[in-house]
Write a structure and sequence with these properties.
Elements: E1 3-7, H1 9-18, H2 25-34, E2 39-43, H3 53-62, E3 66-71, H4 75-84, E4 88-91, H5 111-123, E5 127-132, H6 136-144, E6 149-153, H7 155-158, H8 163-181, E7 186-190, H9 198-202, E8 207-212, H10 214-223, H11 225-237
Parallel strand pairs: 1-2, 1-8, 2-3, 3-4, 4-5, 5-6, 6-7, 7-8
The structure holds pyridoxine-5'-phosphate.
Length: about 240
């Protein structure tokens, strides 16, 4: 059974639009849990555009399922992670201009910086996942760092502009998933997944975790968080 991680950042995006106290991402996390989420994911960005420091503190305290803290390889974020010790840290690249995380970490080019971050987190007993593009060189570089997991970026598949392109990206993703399961690393995936494109990804053998945000938060505006999560959970469970 694949774990469903619900990324609640965009609940905070709505709150920050008015710099008020609602909607509260911590309450959203509790509702997501009731809908069957196996994990809550939140990304504390350097620019604090959505999730705030106090959200992270409260999520760590209140989340009953796994708590996955997403952050960049920066000292400020690593210090927060090492102090709070979430169940998992997913290291991602971060660029102030981007609308969302655009690409995966370039483990080949930034190996030393990423290795130091991974070591620091692992010294605090934290399970580390690296968000990377589905490319053989990135997977091999991640495996050499001894990380516990990689989350393969599904954006190229999700954003494909034609059926052909989507099939090609899916095949590429499947090959990379196979590559990951031949290493000691656990296999996670996410980004850009929706109710209509998630099933072929959820059917990939060896995949243990999916992290989904925008599509579920968008649907929750109409049907409520619990139902939105339950519907996604059902889709990824029917294989
Ligand atoms: N995984 C990672 C590492 C991410 O950065 C994000 C977006 O914050 C997601 C998954 C979820 O992506 P989406 O919001 O497109 O479902």
């Amino acid at each position: 059974m694949i774990r469903l991680g619900i990324n609640i950042d965009h609940v905070a995006t709505v709150r920050q639009a008015r710099k008020t106290i609602e909607p509260d991402p911590v309450s959203a996390a509790a509702m997501a849990e009731r809908g069957g989420a196996d994990q809550i994911t939140a990304h504390l960005r350097a620019d604090r555009r959505h999730i705030q420091d106090h959200d992270i503190e409260l999520l760590k305290e209140k989340v009953r399922v796994k708590f996955n803290f997403e952050c960049a390889c920066e000292d400020e974020m690593l210090a927060i992670a090492c102090r709070l010790k979430p169940d998992q840290v997913c290291l991602v690249p971060e660029n102030r201009q981007e609308i969302t995380t655009e690409g995966g970490l370039d483990v080949v080019t930034h190996r030393n910086k990423i290795a130091k971050s991974v070591y620091r987190l692992q010294q605090h007993g934290i399970f580390v996942s690296l968000f990377i593009d589905p490319e053989a060189a990135q997977i091999s570089a991640a495996a050499k760092l001894g990380v516990e997991a990689v989350e393969l970026h599904t954006g190229a598949y999700a954003n494909a502009q034609s059926l052909d392109q989507s099939q090609q990206e899916l095949e590429k993703l499947k090959l990379c998933c196979q590559h990951v399961i031949e290493t000691p690393m656990r296999l996670h995936a996410g980004h850009g997944l929706t109710y209509s494109n998630v099933q072929p990804v959820a059917a990939i053998e060896g995949l243990e975790e999916l992290n989904i945000g925008h599509s579920v938060i968008a649907r929750s505006v109409f049907v409520g968080m619990e139902t939105a999560v339950r519907e996604m959970k059902q889709l990824i469970s029917i294989q």
